[in-house]
Design goal:
Layout (H helix, E strand, L loop, with lengths): L9 H6 L3 H10 L11 H8 L2 H9 L3 H12 L6 H9 L10 H20 L3 E2 L6 E2 L1 H7 L15 H4 L5 H10 L8 H13 L1 H9 L3 H10 L5 E3 L6 H8 L4 E2 L4 E3 L2 H7 L17 E4 L2 H25 L15 H11 L3 H13 L3 E3 L7 E3 L1 H7 L3 H12 L31 H13 L5 E3 L1 H11 L14 H16 L2 E2 L2 E2 L1 H8 L2 H8 L11 E3 L3 E4 L5 H10 L1 E4 L4 E4 L2 H9 L4 H11 L6 H13 L4 E3 L3 E4 L3 H9 L9 E4 L2 E4 L3 H10 L5 E2 L34 H19 L23 H14 L3 E6 L5 E12 L2 E6 L4 E6 L3 E6 L7
Parallel strand pairs: 16-20
Antiparallel strand pairs: 1-2, 3-5, 4-5, 6-9, 7-8, 10-11, 12-13, 13-15, 14-15, 16-17, 17-19, 18-19, 21-22, 21-25, 22-23, 23-24
Helix pairs in contact: 2-32, 5-7, 5-8, 10-11, 13-14, 16-18, 17-18, 20-25, 21-23, 22-23, 24-25, 27-29
Length: about 800
């Protein structure tokens, strides 16, 4: 194809591109690479398939999409000036279209057109712009799929099948000369509707009510219902072809007439410039960083507290998968948050690989071994681990509590929560945050408007949860970023900016000085409480959480000592002396006497009763205590009986017996088979090693430069093999057959031809059948022929390969330049 010859097909247009341009197409539309096309023709065919075109359209911004929509309602092909006129109008709309908008459209159109060309949605020179046929079918108006522009079919499309007599009636009513030729009649009516002067004269004679009807249809939808006896205004419009029948009860405003009423514009409001994200508030950047750091520390504490709840084994998994509503409510109550926020923390721990299923027959959730490793990290590294797990996660906690497409409830940690577009929305929201000055909180409405402009077709979801999922994902992102400490007081923190731009180490370095230093002491009070004025060192916090119950949280945590909490510490193997020493070592205030008395009193009674397996038994040296238990009506269900003066037997299991006697106010201790007291340390049930959930990809990953270069070379080589000109064979020989078929030659002819090509260094065309029986055409340059094999440079694969001679079906010489 000559360089000045305009392309006749998309394949020819792609073939004329440079390698960088082809690589740009494959980068923008990576679905075209799977698998790598054999040649340019296959690439063009794949680029025109419906699924691929839909995907490409979904990644267009609003103005690029408006440009494609305008081409869809223009004639095919359309010159650049026509496209520009459809986007700016014809300038005869009495100033309705402002000059600044027209100038912005004029300035932005070349860029939008370049985007459409790069993605192979538009091809051809500026004088003959063509929209890919599949895109035209998706965007062009039809009764089944109304155009996004609100325009209806053309006069020719709307009058297809109309009787010549009816066409003549319309021409006469419109003041046009009658003709018996339907083609001429349609052309005359179209010319009338596109003539500004004559169309204005026709509308000047229209009743006011008729103009009101047109006003309701002009910006779409262009279809309206009529009765068998239409009103006079509708009849006036129908008689003159301004409303054309689609069915017995439906009429449509033809495209040419609508464009006249719109002053030539395809869209009511062209949007060539992205909306500006406006500031809602400007805050001190240091205050923003401190607020974000405080929330980051709260996030770490919340995740740790959540997993402590399930340290000894979490809730069971629903049959359909996920966490039950009751268990989610329990988590929310324990964390003192709402259920949607509890779902976020549960899903975040799962995404970070800190929580998983244990894989047992009675499957439950539990912390993973990675949770223990995470606890050993510095606080800033624990935060970056959570943040980097949140950004690419495709699971959407905001959907919890809703319903899927089949009406089933969506549960936390359950299936159907993955939305492949979530990571892209999160990253885009944070990029828009980062483009604002430090300390600036964006206005959410303008942020959503900008996101809708960037991907106008990405709002809907096939799952049925709503028509604007992208906006909902953005709002959830704003809330989750604040909870996680990515933002503080609505503005992006410095550590989050560093995380985006420089990585985890830089973010951790900025966050570390802002986090509170853990304390090694508490303040004991006479009312059996302890106040932690800040975060505690981990060994202190772990021991205190066993010895006391958390009563309240906030800037300072209040712990309360109770008989049950002290008994819990004794059950964990602590002695009373150990507890006294622990409190004295970590309290900045003297240990109150009531607390010392409480510890001694519980310790004195702890283990006085012994529980073992009979099914279970109770052993106590004090017979009076056993008599008291037998006399208590609450023990009836335990079915106790005396085996000896100091031993009672029960048919309940040891665990149930232990809990029942504790509820009755006793302090029994479990006993081993050897008679020793069993120490029940704080549970630490862990799952087997688990990998975090893999995000569900939105589509094929963006290929790297190495893969793109190899793919372009392979496509070029395959195209060379498919389009190379073969030398015509003399009549009666067994050389190359019709185009597209494999060459056929005898074994002797094949051997002689490839030997000659190896000697002269020329390329030949061969047919080859591999070991799997797949046939292909190749252009090769033989280098060596020996031992029944041909070593040659394969232009199709762009590498040196070895071919078995007996698998070559035939060989043909290539035509010289200008030949054939």
């Amino acid at each position: 194809m000559g360089t000045t010859t305009p392309p006749r097909t998309l394949a020819e247009a792609l073939r004329a591109r440079g390698d960088e341009s082809l690589a740009g197409l494959l980068r923008a539309r990576p679905d075209l690479l799977n698998p790598v096309p054999n040649d340019i023709t296959q690439l063009a065919t794949r680029a025109g398939t419906r699924a691929s075109v839909v995907r490409a359209l979904e990644h267009l911004d609003r103005f690029a999409l408006q440009t494609a929509e305008a081409l869809a309602v223009a004639q095919d092909p359309a010159p650049y000036d026509t496209l520009l006129s459809l986007l700016t109008g014809d300038g005869l709309d009495d100033g309705e279209q402002r000059d600044d908008v027209g100038a912005a459209v004029t300035a932005a159109l070349p860029g939008a057109l370049a985007t459409l060309r790069e993605q192979a949605l538009v091809w051809g020179e500026d004088e003959r712009l063509r929209l890919v046929r599949t895109a035209r079918e998706l965007l062009a108006p039809s009764p089944q799929h109304p155009s996004p522009t609100g325009l209806g079919p053309t006069v020719a499309e709307a009058t297809a099948g109309m009787s010549p007599g009816r066409l003549q009636e319309i021409l006469v009513a419109s003041g046009l000369p009658a003709t018996h030729d339907p083609v001429s009649a349609v052309a005359a009516l179209s010319a009338l509707f596109t003539d500004r002067t004559r169309m204005a004269e026709l509308l000047d004679t229209a009743p006011v009510e008729a103009l009101s009807v047109l006003d309701r249809l002009v910006w779409g939808p262009p279809y309206g219902e009529v009765t068998p006896n239409p009103t006079p205004p509708v009849k006036w419009l129908r008689d003159r072809g301004l409303l054309l029948p689609v069915s017995t009860r439906t009429v449509v405003l033809p495209r040419e007439a609508a464009l006249h009423l719109r002053a030539g514009r395809a869209h009511r409001v062209p949007e060539p410039v992205p909306p500006v994200v406006e500031a809602a508030a400007e805050r001190d950047p240091q205050a923003v960083d401190r607020a974000a750091a405080g929330q980051a520390f709260t996030a770490l504490s919340t995740v740790e507290e959540l997993l402590k709840l399930w340290n000894g084994g979490g809730p069971a998994i629903l049959r359909a998968g996920g966490l039950s509503v009751r268990e989610l409510k329990r988590v929310a109550a324990a964390l003192e948050v709402t259920e949607p926020i509890a779902a976020f923390w549960v899903e975040l721990a799962y995404a970070a690989g800190l929580l998983a299923t244990d894989g047992e027959s009675d499957e439950r959730y539990a912390p993973t071994p990675a949770y223990d490793e995470w606890l050993d990290l510095p606080a800033q590294d624990r935060w970056t681990h959570l943040a980097t797990a949140w950004l690419p996660a495709t699971r959407v906690p905001g959907l919890v509590g809703g319903q899927d497409a089949k009406g089933r409830a969506l549960s936390a940690l359950g299936p159907e929560l993955d939305r492949s577009g979530a990571p892209e929305v999160r990253r885009r929201v944070l990029v828009l945050f980062a483009q604002l000055p430090p300390g600036t909180a964006p206005d959410p409405e303008t942020l959503l408007r900008r996101l809708r402009w960037e991907r106008p077709l990405r709002g809907s979801s096939p799952s049925g949860e709503g028509t604007d999922l992208r906006s909902r994902l953005a709002l959830w992102t704003l809330n989750e970023a604040e909870l996680l400490g990515i933002t503080g007081r609505g503005a992006l923190s410095s550590q989050a900016r560093a995380l985006q731009a420089e990585g985890e180490d830089a973010a951790g370095a900025l966050l570390a000085p802002l986090l509170p230093e853990p304390l090694d002491h508490v303040l004991l009070q006479a009312d059996l409480t302890a106040v932690a004025p800040g975060p505690l060192e981990r060994p202190l916090a772990e021991t205190l959480s066993v010895l006391a119950d958390v009563e309240s949280k906030g800037g300072a945590t209040v712990y309360r000592f109770t008989p049950g909490s002290v008994r819990r510490a004794l059950d964990a193997g602590q002695a009373a002396a150990d507890l006294h020493a622990f409190l004295a070592a970590h309290s900045r205030t003297p240990v109150p006497q009531p607390l010392s008395y409480l510890i001694d009193d519980v310790a004195r009674r702890h283990g006085h009763l012994r529980i073992g397996a009979a099914s279970a038994y109770v052993r106590c040296d004090d017979e009076a205590v056993l008599n008291e238990i037998l006399a208590d009506r609450r023990s009836t269900g335990l079915r106790l009986r005396r085996l000896a003066p100091t031993v009672l037997a029960s048919q309940a299991d040891p665990g149930s017996l232990l809990e029942a006697l504790r509820e009755m106010g006793y302090a029994p201790a479990a006993e081993s088979a050897e008679g020793d007291v069993l120490i029940t340390r704080a549970g630490a049930r862990r799952t087997p090693p688990r990998t975090p959930p893999v995000p569900v990809p939105e589509g094929p990953p963006t290929p790297d430069d190495t893969l793109l270069g190899a793919a372009v070379r392979a496509i070029r080589a395959g195209d060379t093999a498919a389009t190379v000109v073969r030398k015509e064979q003399p009549e009666g020989t067994t050389g190359a057959r019709a185009s597209g078929s494999l060459p056929r030659t005898t074994s002797a002819e094949t051997l002689a031809t490839v030997q000659a090509a190896a000697m002269t260094g020329t390329a030949v065309w061969i047919g080859y059948v591999n070991a799997e029986g797949a046939a292909s055409q190749r252009v090769i340059a033989p280098v060596r022929v020996e031992g029944g094999f041909v070593t040659a440079y394969d232009h199709t694969a762009d590498e040196v390969r070895t071919f078995a001679l007996h698998r070559i079906t035939g060989v043909a010489e290539l035509a010289e330049d200008g030949e054939g």
